[in-house]
From TrEMBL:
It holds the Pfam family ABC_membrane. This is ABC transporter ATP-binding protein. Its main location: membrane. Residues 352-593 form the ABC transporter domain. InterPro entries: AAA+_ATPase, ABC1_TM_dom, ABC1_TM_sf, ABC_transporter-like_ATP-bd, ABC_transporter-like_CS, P-loop_NTPase, Type_1_exporter. SMART domains: AAA. Keywords: ATP-binding, Membrane, Nucleotide-binding, Transmembrane, Transmembrane helix. It is a multi-pass membrane protein. The keyword Aminoacyl-tRNA synthetase does not apply. Residues 37-318 form the ABC transmembrane type-1 domain. It comes from Paeniglutamicibacter terrestris.
Length: 610
């Protein structure tokens, strides 16, 4: 299935103002500190502008042949003092803004993570993990840097430039006008730069996200890549993606460099013109030497802010893009939520019923045949029902409707007579535990993995529950690990064999003490004898637990109380294994193909655990 890749800027991209306005509620609590930081930055800029004025006085009065020599020391001390004050104000600005900006970054990141946790499986199937990773990490770091530095400095630089221009105009309108004339082409260039840079920066952020997905997938699938000798192929794919990103970054840098060329070259040219005009004005007696010195010193002070303005504008646009990417995920509506007034069952018997259930994957065409059509099935409390069907008939899909990993698109899934959509989602998922064929274990101890969904019992009871789950899942190999059940297993449990991982995942489902247990071929990596032992033990330990199990082995199917046969997205027949063998030709065909599959596996592996 195609995963969500980077997006090209859509026609409906929000405006700069709209995007930043969305930060309002988060910025509000830290506004006083940001404001203090802003005042410090502004004061630092103005102090920097005051230094040229002192210089003007120094040149005009103090260095005058009749000036007092002590006044020189006074002026030098004043300039030194102003310099120190500027440094202190810069330090204070950082103190004021760094902590709240970092706090805001963390707050948004935690919200983002919580939102990802809530979004339905359908969302996660669409989005590449690298995209989500870059949106939660680098995009939010960018926001912090912009908030702590970019935003303040953009305003302060603008104010400093305006104040500097005013001083220039007050000294001489000719010199002021020359400097201002340089600012006009910069503004025009900035206007064009704005849209070019925004598009390039969006593309590069998306491509960086896709590249992160590629790394993540390669690391995740390193065994497959090595086993199939596809390293070169993966490398080539990654290389071409990395080159695309490089090209985008280069074109982005070129756009920025072109802008900076303007921002730097034009003030330098105007400075040359200013020098000629200033000398002429001084010679005419219309401008004092001190004022001319102050003009150049002011131009020097303004060089930084004028140059920074381009950078900061670029940073602002990149941050805007990062925020759009962030809100794009945050705006994704969670379609699987608890109802406003959830219904709590009076009796938790564990009866599972599917009534006229239909299901179509969200990304399939409207006219395509739904994966599940009219499913009617009743699993009695405490009963073990095996779900059997040819591959791709929708067995896994059906199981996912029970804990609401997907919602049925038609009909109802009921537990104890209550539609699962009317139940509180957390309570529902406490009642229904699942184990899948593709096991995901977390990089923590066996104990923590097994007790992940366990009820909140006190320690002794939890220990007993852990032991029972481990024994039932035939996972006592875990006790022989270096630190027994406290052994930390690698990322996603990769240090365990496939069969061991499956048994730990099964123990996790058992330890959740569910009313309904949904098992999607959770024993496929076990040898036939271990699988039989697990199934027998499951039946005795979980006598009161309703179990719906997708089974691919006739031996497991035979152990179930009843079997439901799925064919073409519908329940074709329900009965005991022997009943169905006796009356249903399609069932005999399915079982025969499962037996063929099983004997092939046994002859290949010699019946040992995978
Ligand atoms: N996320 C998805 N989006 C669209 N179609 C999907 C999605 N997941 C599965 N399908 C399709 O739905 C159908 C049923 O898939 P499902 O995994 O439920 O079959 P299954 O009976 O469990 O197969 P198997 O026995 O091989 O595990 C298949 O045709 C599959 O391609």
């Amino acid at each position: 299935m195609a995963r969500q890749q980077g997006h090209s800027p859509a026609a409906g991209t929000p405006t700069l103002r709209k995007t930043f306005a969305r930060l309002g509620p988060f910025v509000k609590p830290i506004l006083p500190r940001l404001f203090c930081g802003f005042l410090c930055a502004l004061a630092a800029g103005l102090v920097a502008l005051a230094i040229p004025q002192v210089l003007a006085t120094l040149v005009n009065d103090v260095l005058h042949p009749e000036g007092k020599s002590s006044a020189v020391w006074y002026a030098v001390a004043l300039i030194g003092g102003l310099g120190f004050l500027e440094a202190l104000l810069v330090f204070l600005r950082r103190q004021f803004v760094i902590t709240p900006a970092a706090r805001l970054e963390t707050q948004l990141r935690v919200r983002f993570y919580a939102h990802l946790q809530q979004l339905p499986v359908a969302f996660h199937e669409r989005w590449g993990s690298g995209q989500l990773l870059s949106r939660s990490m680098s995009d939010l770091s960018l926001l912090r840097r912009w908030l702590a530095f970019g935003a303040l400095m953009l305003v302060v630089s603008t104010v400093t430039v305006i104040a500097g221009l005013s001083l220039m105009f007050s000294a001489s309108w000719v010199l002021g006008a020359i400097y201002l004339a340089g600012a006009i082409p910069i503004t025009i260039k900035a206007f064009h730069f704005r849209s070019n840079y925004r598009a390039a920066s969006r593309l590069s952020q998306d491509q960086a996200g896709d590249l992160a997905t590629a790394v993540e997938e390669s690391v995740h699938g390193i065994r497959v890549i090595k086993a199939f000798g596809r390293g070169r192929h993966m490398y080539d794919g990654f290389n071409s993606q990395a080159k695309q990103l490089r090209d985008t970054e280069v074109s982005k840098a070129k756009t920025l460099a072109g802008f900076i060329l303007f921002v730097v070259a034009i003030p330098e040219t105007t400075l040359g013109l200013g020098l000629a005009a200033g000398l002429w004005l001084t010679a005419q007696g219309d401008l004092s030497v001190g004022a001319l010195v102050a003009y150049f010193a002011t131009a020097m002070v303004l060089a930084g802010p004028v140059e920074n303005m381009g950078m900061l504008m670029g940073m602002t646009l990149t941050t805007k893009t990062a925020l759009d990417r962030h809100f794009e995920v945050m705006d994704t509506q969670n379609t699987i939520t608890s109802p406003v007034s959830p219904v709590t069952p009076t009796q938790r018997r564990g009866e599972l019923e599917l009534r006229n259930v239909a299901f179509r994957f969200p990304d399939t065409a409207q006219d395509a045949t739904p994966t599940l059509r009219c499913i009617n099935l009743l699993v009695r409390p405490g009963e073990t029902m095996a779900l059997v069907g040819m591959t791709g008939t929708g067995k896994s899909t059906l199981l996912q409707l029970v804990p609401r990993l997907y919602d049925a698109t038609g009909g109802q899934v009921l537990i104890d007579g209550i539609d699962v959509r009317d139940r509180d989602l957390i309570e529902l998922r406490q009642d229904v535990a699942v184990a899948f064929e593709d096991t995901i274990l977390f990089s923590s101890s066996i104990r923590e993995n097994v007790l992940l969904g366990a009820p909140e019992y006190e320690k002794e009871k939890l220990d007993a529950l852990l032991d029972e789950a481990i024994d039932t899942a035939q996972a006592s190999f875990a006790r022989t690990l270096p630190e027994s059940l406290d052994t930390v297993i690698g990322e996603e449990g990769l240090s365990l064999s496939g069969g061991q991982r499956q048994r730990i995942a099964l123990a996790r489902a058992i330890a959740a003490k569910p009313r309904v247990l949904v098992l999607d071929d959770p024993l496929s990596a076990l040898d036939v004898r271990t699988e039989e032992a697990v199934t027998q033990k499951l039946r005795s330990t979980l006598a009161g637990t309703t179990t719906l199990i997708v089974a691919h082995r006739p031996s497991t199917v035979a152990l179930a109380d009843r079997v439901a046969l799925l064919k073409d997205g519908e329940i074709n027949d329900v009965g005991t294994h022997s009943e169905l063998l006796g009356r249903n030709e399609h069932y005999r065909y399915v079982i025969a193909s499962l037996e063929d599959e099983e004997s092939n596996i046994i002859s290949l592996t010699g019946g040992t655990e995978a």
